[in-house]
User: Which sequence fits this backbone?
C-alpha cells in the first residue's frame, strides 16, 4: 500500500485509498497501536479495529449493540466530553470512568466544514498517545470525512422517505393496513405491536440547528424505541413503540419529561410542552392518536395550572369530553344559574367568589389546601363559601351540583369566558 510523505521525514499513512471503514479502522489501529472505533454523529458504530483483543466494557457493549450505550453517552455529556467534541477539531483526552466501564481513550470529531459527521475513539490501553499520535489522528479524521459524508447522504434520503410515510399516516392519506405494513417493510422498519403518538410543542418554529439537536437525541435515546418522527413548524411528532413495558403509559410519560429536559439541559431548547396519545395496536389509527396528543396540548394551554403534570390523553379525565359538552351547551343555549349569579355579584362588588369556588372545587373541598392556593386564612375561605352558598343557591353537600359547577366553570374557561 502506497504511503505519502508529511512535512519533514514523517509519513501520512492515511492518504492511501481504502475500500471500507473496517479496513480504515484497522489501519488506524496498526499505526497508533491501539484499539479503534469509528462512530457516526449519533454514536452508532460504523467500524472497529479487529486485530487487537485489548478493550474495555464500554467498547464491548458498543460493538455488541452497534451503538454506544445510553448510560455512556449521558456520562460523556455530563463530564463535558461530547460538548467539547462538538466544538473543536482537536483530539480530546478522556479520563477513565470505571462506573460505566470506560477506560482511558482519546477522541476526535470528524468534520466536514462546520458539521460533525462522526467520531474516532482510540483506547489508551498500554500507553498514552503522543503529540505525534495526535497529529496522525487528525490526519485520519480528515481522510475519512468523505466516506462518512457519502453515508450521511444515503441516510438523509432514507429519512426523507420515512418522514413522507409518517405524514401520510398522520394526515389519513394511508389507511390500508396491508399498504401500511408494506411501507414499513420497504423502509426496513419493524413495526411495534403497540404504539403511541407523542407531540412536543415549542413556543417558536423549530430551527435547523434545533432540528439537528432533536435528531441527535432521538437517535441516541434507548429507553423508548422511536419508529418514525416528523417536524411541523413548532411541533416535534414521534411514533413511539409501546411494546416493551408492562405499564406503558407511565413509562411514556417519563420518557416525554426526560426527553424535554435533555433538550433543555444539553441544547438550551426551553419551554417544551409534551403530550402523548393513548396506546394503539391498529396503525390505521395513527391520525386518531395524533388528534389525541393535540387535544392534550389544547387542554394544557387552557388549563396550565390544573394540567401541569398531565401528559397522556388517558389522564385528561373529564377534559376529554369538553368539545362534546360545549356543543351540547350551544345547542341547548344553557347557562348555569348559580355561576351567573356569582358572576354578577363579582362584577357589582369587585369580589372574587367565582375564583374562590373554582379553587375550592379544584382541591376537592379541602379548605386548608384551597386557602393556601388563594393565599387567605381558612376562616376567611369558610366565610366566602357561606356567601357563595347563599348567593348562588349552592348546596356543597350535593355531589351532583358540585360536579356540574366544576364542569361548567371549566367549560367557561375552555371557551374563553
Assistant:
Amino acid at each position: 500500500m502506497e504511503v505519502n510523505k508529511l512535512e519533514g521525514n514523517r509519513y501520512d499513512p492515511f492518504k492511501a485509498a481504502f475500500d471500507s471503514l473496517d479496513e480504515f479502522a484497522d489501519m488506524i489501529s496498526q499505526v497508533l497501536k491501539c484499539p479503534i472505533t469509528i462512530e457516526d454523529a449519533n454514536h452508532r458504530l460504523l467500524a472497529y479495529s479487529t486485530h487487537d483483543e485489548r478493550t474495555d466494557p464500554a467498547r464491548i457493549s458498543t460493538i455488541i449493540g452497534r451503538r454506544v450505550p445510553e448510560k455512556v453517552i449521558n456520562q460523556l455529556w455530563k463530564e463535558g466530553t461530547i460538548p467539547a467534541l462538538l466544538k473543536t477539531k482537536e483530539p480530546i483526552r478522556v479520563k477513565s470512568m470505571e462506573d460505566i466501564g470506560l477506560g482511558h481513550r482519546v477522541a476526535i470529531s470528524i468534520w466536514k466544514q462546520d458539521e460533525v459527521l462522526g467520531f474516532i475513539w482510540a483506547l489508551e490501553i498500554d500507553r498514552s498517545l503522543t503529540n505525534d499520535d495526535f497529529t496522525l489522528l487528525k490526519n485520519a479524521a480528515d481522510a475519512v470525512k468523505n466516506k462518512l459524508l457519502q453515508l450521511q447522504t444515503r441516510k438523509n434520503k432514507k429519512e426523507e422517505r420515512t418522514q413522507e410515510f409518517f405524514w401520510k399516516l398522520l394526515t389519513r392519506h394511508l389507511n390500508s393496513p396491508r399498504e401500511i405494513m408494506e411501507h414499513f417493510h420497504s423502509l426496513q422498519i419493524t413495526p411495534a405491536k403497540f404504539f403511541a403518538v407523542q407531540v412536543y410543542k415549542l413556543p417558536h418554529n423549530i430551527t435547523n440547528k434545533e432540528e439537528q439537536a432533536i435528531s441527535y437525541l432521538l437517535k441516541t435515546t434507548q429507553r423508548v424505541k422511536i419508529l418514525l418522527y416528523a417536524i411541523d413548524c413548532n411541533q416535534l411528532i414521534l411514533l413511539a413503540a409501546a411494546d416493551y413495558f408492562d405499564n406503558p403509559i407511565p413509562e411514556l410519560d417519563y420518557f416525554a419529561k426526560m426527553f424535554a429536559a435533555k433538550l433543555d439541559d444539553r441544547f438550551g431548547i426551553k419551554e417544551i410542552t409534551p403530550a402523548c396519545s393513548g396506546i394503539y395496536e391498529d396503525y390505521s389509527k395513527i391520525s386518531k392518536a395524533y388528534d389525541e396528543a393535540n387535544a392534550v396540548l389544547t387542554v394544557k394551554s387552557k388549563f396550565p395550572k390544573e394540567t401541569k403534570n398531565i401528559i397522556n390523553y388517558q389522564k385528561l379525565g373529564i377534559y376529554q369530553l369538553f368539545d362534546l359538552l360545549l356543543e351540547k351547551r350551544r345547542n341547548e343555549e344553557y347557562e348555569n344559574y348559580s355561576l351567573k349569579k356569582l358572576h354578577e355579584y363579582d362584577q357589582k362588588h369587585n369580589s372574587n367568589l367565582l375564583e374562590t369556588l373554582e379553587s375550592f372545587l379544584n382541591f376537592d373541598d379541602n379548605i386548608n389546601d384551597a386557602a393556601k392556593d388563594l393565599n387567605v386564612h381558612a376562616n376567611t375561605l369558610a366565610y366566602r363559601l357561606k356567601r357563595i352558598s347563599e348567593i348562588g343557591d349552592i348546596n356543597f353537600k350535593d355531589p351532583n351540583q358540585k360536579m356540574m359547577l366544576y364542569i361548567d366553570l371549566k367549560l367557561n374557561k375552555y371557551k374563553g369566558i
Q: What stands out?
A: Residues 134 and 242 are 45 Å apart (CA to CA). Residues 131-170 form the longest helix (40 residues). The longest strand covers residues 115-123.
